Amino acid sequence: MAVKHELKNWLPITKKELEAHGWDELDVIIISGDAYVDHPAFGGAVIGRIIESAGYRVGIIPQPNWQDDLRDFKKFGKPRLFFGVTSGCMDSMVNHYTANKRKRSNDAYTPGGDAGFRPDYATITYTKILKELYPDVPVVVGGVEASLRRVTHYDYWSDQLMPSILIDSGADLLVYGMGEQPLREIMSLLGKGVPFHQLTNIPQTSYKAPRNEEVAKHKDWKDIVLNTHEKCLRDKKSYASNFKFVEQESNRLQADRIIQAAGDFNVVINPPYYTMTEQEIDQSFDLPYTRLPHPKYNKRGPIPAYEMIKFSINMHRGCFGGCSFCTISAHQGKFIASRSQESIMKEVDQVTSMPDFKGYISDLGGPSANMYGLKGKVQEICDRCVSPSCIHPVICSNLDTDHSQMTDIYRKVDKHPKVKKAFVGSGIRYDLLTKSYNKDANDSIDEYMEQLITRHVSGRLKVAPEHTADDTLKIMRKPSFKHFHEFKKKYDQINEKHQLNQQLIPYFISSHPGCKEEDMANLAAETKDMGFRLEQVQDFTPTPMTVATVIYYSGFHPYTMQKLFTPKSEKEKRNQHMFFFWHKNEYRQRIKDKLQSKGREDLIERLLFSKPEKKQFAQKEEGKSKVFGKKKSFSGKRSGKSRRK
């Protein structure tokens, strides 16, 4: 039976709703760049519900107007404890702009998908407004935007290095990563009467201290002092060398404290909390969400991001892949926090009881769907680990990759009387499912693949090999493409066995650091040979807190300090991307000219011609070489140069 919700089942977003709760003031006010969706996939709702569960009065001001008389920011007055600020589920600049810096015309986190309801650099804009209106009220910033901008970082959209967001915003405290654990501690200490300015020893938080004063020592934490923001501005190598420490300490279970000077302050970043236990993550997902957008949006149209996940189940957090272009581990952590099967099945009951549920769960997954329940065999080894990835350059011998728990939960959901089909839509790590790469894997990966392909693919399965060139894949921290060939073979065999015709959809990135034009041409040719006509290819977008972004800006790999090439100009990016359009007539001549200029006639043959055409092309090229062969000195030097290229 579906639950009928009253307006007071949501956290208040208006003065009238505040009164309906019987409150005359709030302890905490959350400002969010997203519309208010009371669902565990939306950070503002999670934070609000946690504060509520601790016994405090909390309200949300979603998508306030920052361009008028600021009445939205004033409607609740001053909170008793603090303001919480988040840009929303995405960095506001990623939300607003494409990889080519073109303004997007829509916003998935706004009713009707309408753009223009949040500012650029939303966390900074909102915080500055609050500090002007209520200078004596503390501001805590959190969410993806704050988390990934906690140290000196490269901002692609302004093409400059920016200091910690604490400096530019003027916020008093920053919560990084998934905020439940630090937030519970903040609320606990404030409840005991600890003054806000003394909240300096909470893990997974960052604060400013006067630069002319020594930062107080902590008996349990060692300190790592980074190159100052000013030094990073002068010297790109100094900026690059900082990142190794930032990434390693973000992913260590027993990490050091980081200190970086910027302007008049030292930015102090406390070590992260230990990975959430099953009980802790269950608590977060089991809070009394309505699982619906606030009723005020009913006449404004659906919220696309909500429509995408309303019938999905997030089973875990974190990702141990450590891909150099991805921010998931920087925000959610390297180690997997998995929910209990009881909590997951409880959510399945809730989803299947929704009035418009038609029997189909859109996703049983997480950042990478097949990491649920995976962890180290010996925890003490994980406790000491500083590697940013558990599966690159090889799969760690201490990682238990048994997929039985996933197969088990898939089958339980499959048997639910109200579920016709439960799909896995969030993508999987194919390399974990190939015995050529996952050498210590047991038979559970075969059982998992059989269950996945026969019961949980909605006609298309998404995987992300990202590239075909080994040199680029190494920079990406991804396995050799030969393992994708093995996975596809296995995938096709299972489909054939069960008389299924399900597509495999591979994702690729162009213009990644280290990638040359010939690499992209080879990628297009190799995938064409495999029968793919690619549709899921995107240009690399530099986002804060990734290895690839550090390389893009500085030109140096932060772990080796080796200088690396990165395509940056619009022309370079366009030249890389065009190889994916080999099947369009308007691109054929440009592709042919480009590859001829690089002496890669072999790729012309593979990319532009069918089998009969390839034979004709080869004969034509052979005839040319016989003619040019008469001019030995010219021909020899030219062809030799081409081969070296």
UniProtKB/TrEMBL annotation:
Instruction: Identify the keywords attached in UniProt to this record, alphabetized.
Output: 4Fe-4S, Iron, Iron-sulfur, Metal-binding, S-adenosyl-L-methionine
Q: Where is the composition biased (Basic and acidic residues)?
A: 615-625
Q: Does the keyword Iron-sulfur apply?
A: yes
Q: Where does the record place the region Disordered?
A: 615-645
**Cofactor note from UniProt?**
Binds 1 [4Fe-4S] cluster. The cluster is coordinated with 3 cysteines and an exchangeable S-adenosyl-L-methionine.
Q: Which InterPro entries match?
A: Elp3/MiaA/NifB-like_rSAM (IPR006638), Methylthiotransferase_CS (IPR020612), rSAM (IPR007197), rSAM_horseshoe (IPR023404), rSAM_sf (IPR058240), UPF0313 (IPR022946), UPF0313_C (IPR024560), UPF0313_N (IPR013704)
Binding site residues for [4Fe-4S] cluster = C319, C323, C326
Show the PROSITE patterns listed in the entry: MTTASE_RADICAL, RADICAL_SAM
Q: Which cofactor does it need?
A: [4Fe-4S] cluster
Keyword Transmembrane helix applies: no
Q: Which residues form the signal peptide?
A: none
Renumbered to this chain, the Basic residues biased-composition regions fall at: 627-645
What would you give as a GO molecular function for this chain, any one? Answer: catalytic activity
Q: Which residues form the Radical SAM core domain?
A: 305-584
**Sequence similarity:** Belongs to the UPF0313 family.
What is this protein called in UniProt? Answer: Uncharacterized radical SAM protein YgiQ
- What species is given as this protein's source? Reichenbachiella faecimaris
